[in-house]
Write a structure and sequence with these properties.
Layout: H1 13-24, E1 32-37, H2 44-52, E2 56-59, H3 62-70, E3 78-80, H4 89-94, E4 98-101, H5 104-111, E5 119-125, E6 147-148, H6 152-161, E7 165-170, H7 179-193, E8 201-203, H8 221-239, E9 244-247, H9 251-254
Parallel strand pairs: 1-2, 1-9, 2-3, 3-4, 4-5, 5-6, 5-7, 7-8, 8-9
Helix pairs in contact: 7-8
């Protein structure tokens, strides 16, 4: 038996593969892009498994985005959504990385970048969150993530003046397991999407609760996606718009594999 010095971390390829298969098979009416939140665990072998399994990536910093590109992953499969604007934004855009503005400053920087595309994603902070504590809550008045939802008119004016279309909308609320709560956030996300007529893709984020100990309840993704599908179909019937959705699990992918 080979001896390894402590500490040592091991991850099960089987469990990760099962999660990839599970999330890739979730039924939605108008398609779903599953992104791995790289910050959960950036080990090269885990990233390769995700890429080989058809999973795209969510980068929370310019460094994560650059590391993914350096590993040979397609820029078009990488979405950058960071609190600090990338210092190498020009290079990332040249590589095809999808940019999500999470503040007015980031949006201004993007609009002023010479090689920017004519489409952009916007992260909006809704008026609710459901994290199990204030450190996992990524929506609501206590969150620093995203542009406050009431400033939508200003956002649309800025992009319209620059000839840029907002085609991707990100709305994240944090950690949770209750399908009813996820249904509420989808309803609120769709209410916001009504104000952005050119949006074709709605990213509902991550934060899908995993069971760690005791009486904690793990998110049932099948039930959550059933709720999502009902809301998306009703939105299509009402507005004629068939929205593609995206999710960004991180912990949900790997917690039980470690």
């Amino acid at each position: 038996t080979k001896f390894y010095m402590s500490p040592r971390f091991e991850y099960s390829r089987r469990v990760i593969s099962e999660r990839i298969a599970e999330l890739g098979a979730l039924p939605v009416p108008f398609g779903c892009t599953v992104r791995y939140a790289v910050k959960a665990n950036p080990h090269p072998e885990i990233l390769k498994m995700m890429n080989d399994g058809g999973v795209h990536f969510d980068a929370s910093s310019e460094f994560e985005a650059q590391a993914l590109l350096s590993a040979g992953f397609a820029g078009a499969h990488i979405s950058l959504s960071s609190q600090q604007c990338a210092q190498n934004l020009t290079e990332l855009l040249d590589a095809g990385v999808l940019f999500v503005a999470t503040s007015f400053k980031q949006l201004e920087t993007f609009l002023a970048t010479a090689n920017r595309p004519d489409k952009v994603g916007i992260r909006i902070n809704p008026a609710m969150g459901s994290g199990h504590n204030n450190r996992t809550n990524t929506g609501g008045v206590n969150s620093s993530f995203g542009i406050w939802y009431e400033y939508g008119e200003k956002v649309r004016a800025m992009t319209a003046a620059a000839g840029v279309t907002i085609d991707r909308l990100h709305i994240h609320i944090g950690s949770g397991a209750d399908p009813y709560v996820w249904g509420q956030v989808m309803e609120q996300a769709l209410d916001i999407a009504r104000e952005y007529p050119d949006v074709t893709s709605l990213n509902i984020g991550g934060g899908y609760k995993v069971h760690r100990y005791g009486e904690e309840v793990e998110a049932n993704m099948t039930d959550i996606f059933k709720t999502f599908s009902e809301k998306l179909l009703a939105f299509k019937e009402e507005t004629g718009r068939a929205l593609h959705i995206e999710i960004e699990p991180g912990t949900y992918f790997i917690a039980h594999a470690g």
